[in-house]
Amino acid sequence: MKSVIIALAATLLLVACGKTKKPDEQAFLNSLDSAKKGPTIDEAVINSILEQIPSPLEISVLLKESGTKYNYSLLNSPDNLSKYNSNFKKAINLGVYGTDLGYTNIYQQNKDGIKYLASIKSLANELNIGQFFDIETIGRLATNSKNLDSLLLITTQNFNSINHYLQTQGRANLSVLLLTGGWLEAMQITCQVASKNPKSKELREKIGEQKIILEQIVLLFGFYKEDENMASLLKDLTDLKAAFDKIKITYTYKESSMEVVNGVAVIKDNSTTTIDITDADVQNISSITNSIRTKIAN
Amino acid sequence: MSEEILKALTQLFAIITKQDGGVTENERQFVINFFQQELDQDTIKEYLVLYDEYSGYNKQGKGDDEKNKLTSVKDSVKTLGICKKINKTLTQKQKVVVLIKLLELIGSDKNFTPQRIEIINTVSTVFNIGQEEYKLVETFIIAEKVEDLNFKDVLLVNSAESKSAENQKHAHAHIEGQLVFLRVKSVDMYFSKYLGEQSNMLNGFIMQPNKVYLFSHGSTIKTQGGDALYYSDLVAHFNEEIKTTKLSFNAHIEEFKFPNGAIGLRNVVISEGPGKLIGIMGASGAGKTTLLLTLAGLEQPSTGEIKINGFNIHTEKEKIEGVIGFVSQDDLLIEELTVYQNLYYNAKLCFSHFTEKELHERVMNTLVNLGLDQRKDLTVGSVLDKKISGGQRKRLNIALELIREPAILFLDEPTSGLSSRDSENVIDLLKELSLKGKLIFVVIHQPSSDIYKMFDKMIIMDTGGYQAYYGAPVEAVTYFKKATHQVDSNRGQCETCGNVNPEQIFNIIESKVVDEYGQPTTKRKITPPQWHDMYRTRFNVSPVADIKEAPPSTLRIPSRLKQTVIFTTRDFLAKLSNKQYLLINLLEAPLLAIILTFIIKYKSAPGGKEYVFRFNDNFPAFLLMSIIVALFMGLTVSAEEIIRDRKILKRESFLNLSWNSYLISKLNILFLLSAVQTFMFVVVGNLILEIHGMTFAMWLVLFSTSCFANVLGLNISSAFNSAVTVYVMIPLLLIPQMILSGLLFSFDKLNNIISTKGKVPLVADFMASRWAYEAMAVYQFKNNEYEDPFYHYEREEAKADFKTAYLADELKKRNLFVLENFENKNDSVKALVAHQLTILLDNLRNEPFRAGFEKINIEEDFTQLKYTKVKGMMLDAYIEEYRKHYQKIYNENVNLIEKKMAFYEKSGININQEKNTYYNESLSDLVKNVSVKERLLEYDGKLIQQINPIFQEIKPTSVVDYRTAFFLPEKNLLGTTVSTYLFNILVIWCMAAVCYLALHREWLRKLVDLFGNMKIPNKVTVPFRRK
User: Fold this and answer.
1) Does the CB of A19 have a partner CB in chain B at under 8 Å?
2) Is the domain of B22 the same as that of B167?
3) Which domain holds residue B43?
4) Is residue B915 packed enough to be buried (19+ CB in 10 Å), middle (13-18) or exposed (0-12)?
5) Cβ(B413)–Cβ(B444) under 8 Å?
6) Last residue in a domain, options B129, B155, B184
7) Which of A273, B321, B633, B904 is the 20 to 30 Å CA partner of B356?
8) Secondary structure (3-state) at B854
């Protein structure tokens, strides 16, 4: 009899313990009423801006061509996946991982690439855009470095079609987050590489060029001020923009000329773009980028 | 008799005879006769000298009165001393014999002087023989006229029709003179003496007139008139209990056939009244046990009947309930209980009207009677681990039947394996019972002479089930001797020692024909049928008149509920006392939990640095294993239960106890054990694997599963005969449970004959494992701390997502096909169009969203005949609206979830921490069926959603349609929607209930028997045939 009582007590204890008190449903619903509803944004506007932003993968290609070595520690660890619970985090990190996957693939680091693939697949599923990832095909391509081109094509196509799909679904904010994530990660990698090669003019200019893109992004975020998460990110991005504002981009127009090279007529663009960026600017941008990226990834 | 005692007796004789006139020649002769019986020729002289010295023989004339008085005082002191010495060594029975000898001594010369009588009186007092009894004995020896013997302990046998004195008992016989029998009640001894001129034979020896003979068990007196007076018949006259017991037993077994067709018994006739101890003897294979079983009603004769008080024991069982007791050769004890408990619970089942005190007294009485009172608190122990001796076991077995005092008792070789002393004790006890009016049948092997003579009647069976003899035991010897014309055939027993050699009988029955070389052949001189015919012609069994009233029965069976309580307590105590059983069963669960969880716990967190429950990929498998463990423990613990009790059940079958009560008691204990086992498993397992918040829920499922396994195990336990068969059955029951649990093999990828897309296959519905698994998986996913607040939104989200992302497209595609082809005249295309329309209708019929479509009756407007291009376009537009509508719902829910998460984070809850603790990714992938390739599938004319079963809604087609895909969160229970967890537990209990019904009706056993009785042709195949 005694043992039965002890057993019962133990059950109660086990059932009871480990329960953290959560605010009840009503409290949550009440908080909803007070939140104001944001205005609807014309999809066409968002679309036009989005289309101007180049794929972050292009930056990765540049990096490879500049001769820097592969560095896994620059990337967001695929293990962080489990930390992303809200759609905001999921979407932005899906973008981040997309860039990371591109980076690993460009350097033919298939072993790491597969990990990113898995994380991407998982995030995409959770965002209900899993159908755009034929993981088996991507996996097959990823394990064979010769298929780099196909892989690049597929991933790029994927991002494009996802963008499109989300827009038709009225979930354009996810598209914005996806691209922002991708861009931010590209920025991060570039900045990190640049900080290790401070003399590389090419990299510094690449960073400076991003000023235009950031402006577009900030513009886009402006539409989602009601979303708490996005508003908070916008604030960070504005800080970053302030750093970029110090950079001067001068575009000098010169008429194009025609030359004959090896018997073929070629039109030569004589216009030049000069980017004035100081070391301090690079450092400033790097640190702000890094802090935003850390916030997103964790 | 020891030298010391003989010396003491000699002195006693001397002291008595020397009183009042000294020793006469007659008296001295009597003493010499006595010595002759006890001693050899040489020692007689020695003792006679001693006697003469003490008694002062040959010293006559010397005594004067003064001296006489002195010696008498001296003698008295001496007498006392001697008697005390005798008291220490002789039993009461022997003392009575001594007393009778003393009285006979002085009776030999009729010299009854007061002083002599005085001394004998003193002796009797010292011997603790009651004054009344002494008077009786004295009168019996002294009296010369039967009229003087007016005592109720005296039986007079003569040719007269009536008794000579009022209190006497009387029997008629063809005899001259008077034959007097005396009973000394306190020691239950009989003496006889003959007053007359005839020479009657006592056990084949001539009875001297006026001499007192001990009339021992099995004695026979043959008168010159040809009458045989048997001990049992004469003794019956003294027994009041026999006279008052109303019992008649008439058996006429014409034939008994074994299932294989062999004949076990032929033409056996037995008729008995109360108060008889009847032995059954025979060579092995003669059918002794078969006869006993048939007489007890455990086997039914092919032709013939057995009647107790006129009630047929096979057809009128209820009339003779509790009348029969049967002690089989096997041990029918509950080994884990003590001697006392064995008896106590048995008594409790028999006497519901007894108080605890009465029960205790009854048990103690029985224990004392069987000499087991000193051993009452010892555990019986198994045959291998003996705690009490073989004899004590045997006695306890008998005690179990004796305690309820059945009117008719059958014992199968109660003395086998016992020492001769134990055997005698057992038969003594049975004899005593028979004297109380019980009718007792005993199968016995090689009885000693004493035991043999104790029987009132002996049935001798011969090979082939022939009855070769049925009558007084000692008579048997003379009968068989006579039948084979042996010398000295009148004497059944040894002249000097009175021993009977029952072996002689079998030597005679089975004596073989000798061939010309003097070697015995296999052929018998007299075959069993011949013996049987001989017996038939010589003896005639006259049936006992059927008594027309219910036979005496002390049985009062308790109510069913009480029986359950008694059975349960008994079983519980037995299990408690079996330390090994208890330890193994209680340690098994936590041990398995430790082994299992220890092995599958790994550094699961991404990066492999620590263990986090959320990332434990083994969790779904752990749930399945825990079900298998519950099933396995449930089965093993119950599988042997009934088999082990079968012997006890057989014994208790005479009590007609409730099978239901018995089964319920089993379930009580097994369920309790299951509850404890599964509880420990869950607690230990969940502690190690850090599974939070589902201890009770998981326990309830596992407990239910284990209980189901208990009932299932009892079924096989009751159906098969050996524990080995039962254990072989366990994998046969367990492995399908594993195969069809839903985890190891996906229900979608089973053989097409059994699988149905979108629904759990029907075969799997017979598996408790599948219900248990679904219950636990669904519960864990839906109700875990993390998921619980979001489940509702996620469900809405998933439902809306499915409609926009998959269903809308699919419907559009089908509508397009119809639009293009509805005017086609081709039959096969027409059929396709019709098919697509049905699918469209199926999916839109119950659609709540109707914007822009409100006025259209889908059922009527979208038949194949009424379909028009305009309608098709309308439908297309509607589907687009439908998609947009659900897209909105989807987005809303996504937003809500987002907000709720932010809300929780704000109120200080670490969502990620919660998810790590309560949520399992692997399980969530399983219940969401994320690995499925085709998220939407057309099967059997229906669109089936394969993704996200955990978020789907049920769509029952009728009230009783309970079937759904695996992991749906709800089920249809007769029109109401019930959570899967609850529904599945209910199903498991229903399965247990059905199993219980099968158990109660013994369906499985009957089925097994049916197969067992199928005859396999008995052809002998020759492996190698020579040409």
Assistant:
1) yes
2) no
3) 1-129
4) buried
5) yes
6) B129
7) B321
8) coil
Question: Nearest CA to CA, how far is A45 from chain B (Å)?
Answer: 20
Distance between CA B864 and CA B867 in Å, rounded?
Answer: 6
Under an 8 A CB cutoff, do B897 and A87 touch?
Answer: yes
Residue A113 identity (one-letter amino acid): G
Cα-Cα-Cα-Cα dihedral of A277, A283, A288, A289, to 10°? 80
At B39, phi and psi to the nearest 5?
Answer: -125, 165
Query: Which residue in A has a C-alpha nearest to residue B802's C-alpha?
Result: A128
Is residue B715 pLDDT above 80, yes or no?
yes
pLDDT tens-digit readout, A149-161: 666 666 667 767 7
On whether both B811 and B933 belong to a single domain, the answer is yes
* Sign of the CA dihedral with A113 first, then A115, A121, and A126 last: negative
Tell me the mean pLDDT in the region B287-295: 87
- Asked if residue B748 belongs to a domain, the reply is no
Distance between CA atoms of residues B196 and B194, nearest Å: 6
The tens digit of pLDDT for each residue in B274-290 reads 888 899 998 887 888 88
Closest Cα partner for A70 from A178, A187, A207, A192? A192
Angstroms from B652 CA to nearest CA on chain A: 30
**What are the residues facing B276 on neighbouring strands?**
B439
| pLDDT at res. A50 | 65
Asked if residue B825 is part of any domain, the answer here is yes
Chain A residues touching B894 at Cβ < 8 A:
87, 171
Task: Please tell me whether residues B101 and B156 are part of one structural domain.
Answer: no
Q: Are B606 and A85 an interchain contact pair (Cβ–Cβ within 8 Å)?
A: no
∠ CA B327-B333-B337 to the nearest 5 degrees?
150
* B749-757 average pLDDT score: 86
Helix (H) or strand (E) holding B227: none
- Answer whether residue B981 shows pLDDT above 60: yes
- Min Cα distance A42 → chain B (Å) is 16
Query: Could you tell me if B900 and B848 lie in one domain?
Result: yes
**Number of separate domains in chain B:** 4
Inter-chain Cβ pairs, chain A and chain B, closer than 8 A: 91
**Could you give the CA distance from residue B935 to residue B951 in angstroms, rounded to a whole number?**
13
Whether residue B70 is found in the same domain as residue B102:
yes
* DSSP letter, residue B490: T
| Alpha-carbon distances, residue A58 vs A99, A113, A257, A280, B816 (angstroms) | 9, 17, 28, 25, 41
For the entire predicted model, the pTM comes to: 0.77
* Residue B765, token pair as written in the block: 């519905």
- Whether residue B251 contacts residue B307, with contact meaning beta carbons closer than 8 Å, is answered with yes
Backbone φ and ψ for B143, nearest 5 degrees, come out as -60, 140
Yes or no, beta carbons of B903 and A23 under 8 Å apart: yes
**Domain end among B129, B156, B177:** B129
Nearest CB to A19: which of B615, B785, B899?
B785
* Tokens found for residue B62: 């010397």
Average pLDDT value for chain B? 83
Interface residue B917 vs chain A (CB under 8 A): yes
Is the distance from CB of A177 to CB of A229 less than 8 angstroms?
Answer: no
Residue A146, chain B, CB below 8 Å: the answer is no
Helix (H, G, I), strand (E, B) or coil at B626: helix
* Lowest mean per-residue pLDDT among A145-149, B286-290, B734-738, B774-778: A145-149
Nearest CA in chain B to A79: B606
Domain of residue B540, CATH code = 3.40.50.300
B300 three-state secondary structure: coil
Across the interface, whether the CB atoms of B901 and A85 are under 8 A apart is answered: yes
B279 and B427 inside one domain = yes
Give SS3 for B620: helix
B 797-816 residues inside an 8 A Cβ radius of A: 801, 804-805
pLDDT, tens digit, 9 for 90 and up, residues A117-131: 888 888 888 887 877
Same domain, B31 and B170: no
CB A105 within 8 A of CB A146: no
Taken in order B898, B900, B902, B908, the sign of the CA dihedral is negative
